[in-house]
Amino acid sequence: MEVINALGRRKAAVARIYVSEGTGKITINKRDLGTYFPSSILQFVVKQPLTTLGKAEAYDIKVNLNGGGFKGQAEALRLAIARALVKINPEDKPALRAEGFMTRDPRAVERKKPGQPKARKRFQFSKR
Q1: pLDDT tens figures, 60-75
Q2: Is the pTM of this model over 0.85?
Q3: Among 10, 26, 40, 86, which residue is least crowded by beta carbons within 10 Å?
Q4: Out of 3.30.40.10, 3.40.50.620, 3.40.50.2000, 3.30.230.10, which CATH number does the structure's domain 4-99 have?
Q5: C-alpha distances in angstroms, 73 versus 42, 70, 108, 125?
């Protein structure tokens, strides 16, 4: 199997991944998954598409991650892994779609409006 690449985005985070056959090693920005995401919840989020298909030990994944916070980065990586798995085997798509891993989450930060301190917050109103 040749190297398969895929892209995942979430908020400001962008994950570019390269998947090859291997032993289940995930390397993010030249660091191990456990050191990059110390939280077990985020590690679980990243591995969700692999565990859903039962292929957690089948592929080595090399990741370039930048932008956003740790939660956005983990979800961007999850989307990228799901897209790569579908490139490898298109029959897996319905199973991943049912879990919601194939949909890019469109929610992003609302822009700040002029004359206001934040997007929705207003300055205190003074009648006099």
Answers
A1: 999 999 999 999 999 9
A2: yes
A3: 40
A4: 3.30.230.10
A5: 9, 5, 13, 39
